[in-house]
Write a structure and sequence with these properties.
Layout lengths: L2 H45 L3 H87 L4 H5 L5 E8 L9 H13 L7 E6 L4 H11 L3 E6 L5 E5 L5 E5 H10 L6 E5 L4 H7 L5 E5 L5 H16 L4 H14 L8 E5 L15 H5 L1
Parallel strand pairs: 1-2, 1-3, 3-6, 6-7
Antiparallel strand pairs: 4-5, 7-8
Helix pairs in contact: 1-2, 4-8, 6-7, 8-9
Protein name: CHAT domain-containing protein
Organism: Rubrobacter marinus
InterPro entries: CHAT_dom
């Protein structure tokens, strides 16, 4: 029998027990009533002086005693049924417990196999990424690489003002940070997350961090991004204002990522002021958004160009079997080849050797 069948059996037994308990109470009340009536009739027999009344009361007592005996028999039968029901329930519970334990053991075994497969897959992807980035890095001259800063900052803006169906922005940041820690040039990329971002936080953070990459993660539409007001409520900011904000940081910002639904237009507008901008042309699921960001920054941390990091992020979505591999879009400023936009400077001495 399946787990559901055992559970249904247990429910039926519990309902049956409730019915038996109800019947037991009913029969016990009837027995008490008969006992009271017998006692009353016997007292009336003793008080009466009429022989006819005495014989009538005696017949009543005899009749009620027979009914009382039958009530006792019914109570005994119910008690027996209750005992059997209790035993059956215990057996059904044991069967259910065994079925649940077997299912959990099976699920645990399957999860271990999935984890082992994921680890093998991730090691394979990492080897492929390192090889691809090594081949790409050989195309760049040492002079081009020396012009790159020793360390870049990724300014990560996170805002989710809705209480229901919250986005896993914390998981996105954590996964990106973990991937960067595993990257070849882990010390060259600094991740600076800013949470529950309000409009006034944007310029403050831009001036403080002077980032190479600005990343927006949260909710969006074709014309605006959602941030939070002072009370934590949704605060929309128009595409035009976001574009002006990007322009104000264009002296050091090279890449902008809008990891939010329907943010394609914002990215296209931002690409007029920075080398590369990435946005979403449709709704994007939480898992897909997280996987995209995770793989993009992993590739950046291995020294990949923005184009190659973007391509690898799309490929990772497909490899994981997630929907939305065609949702992210990349835009570049006129005259800029995103395949030549490299953010992280590799170890030139090691590269030369």
């Amino acid at each position: 029998m399946s787990e559901d069948m055992y559970r249904n059996k247990l429910v039926r037994l519990q309902k049956k027990r409730a019915e038996l308990e109800k019947g037991k109470g009913r029969e016990a009340k009837e027995f008490e009533k008969l006992e009271s009536e017998i006692s009353k009739a016997q007292k009336e027999m003793l008080r009466t002086k009429s022989e006819m009344t005495r014989r009538s009361k005696a017949r009543q007592v005899e009749s009620k005693r027979k009914s009382a005996v039958k009530a006792q028999e019914k109570l005994a039968k119910i008690e027996s049924d209750l005992a059997k029901n209790f035993s059956d329930q215990a057996g059904a519970q044991r069967q259910l417990d065994r079925a649940v334990a077997q299912r959990m053991k099976k699920e645990e075994s399957q999860e271990k196999r999935r984890q082992a497969e994921r680890m093998r897959h991730e090691r394979s992807v990492s080897r492929e990424i390192r090889e691809q980035n090594r081949l790409y890095s050989e195309r760049l001259s040492a002079e081009q690489l020396r012009d790159l800063p020793e360390k870049i900052k990724v300014l990560f803006f996170a805002a989710d003002p809705f209480e229901e169906d919250r986005l896993r922005l914390d998981r996105e940041v954590r996964n990106v940070a973990e991937r960067l820690r595993m990257a070849e040039y882990r010390d060259s990329v600094g991740l600076e997350p800013r949470w529950a971002v309000r409009p006034g936080d944007l310029l403050q953070a831009l001036n403080e961090a002077k980032p190479r990459v600005v990343h927006f993660s949260g909710h969006g539409s074709e014309d605006e991004l959602l941030f939070e007001d002072e009370a934590g409520n949704p605060k929309p900011i128009s595409k035009e204002d976001i574009t002006r904000f990007i322009a104000l940081g264009s002296d050091h910002v090279r890449v902008v990522i809008f990891n939010a639904c329907f943010s394609r237009d914002q990215a296209e507008a931002a690409a007029e002021h920075v080398d590369v901008a990435i946005g979403m042309n449709a709704p994007i699921g939480d898992e897909t958004a997280i996987m995209f960001a995770e793989q993009f920054y992993s590739a950046i941390g291995f020294g990949a160009s923005v184009q190659r990091a973007f391509d690898q992020a799309l490929n990772r979505i497909g490899l994981e079997g997630l929907p939305g591999a065609k949702t992210p879009e990349l835009f570049s400023r006129e005259g800029v080849d995103p395949d030549e936009v490299v953010l992280v400077r590799p170890d030139l001495e090691r590269r030369a050797s």
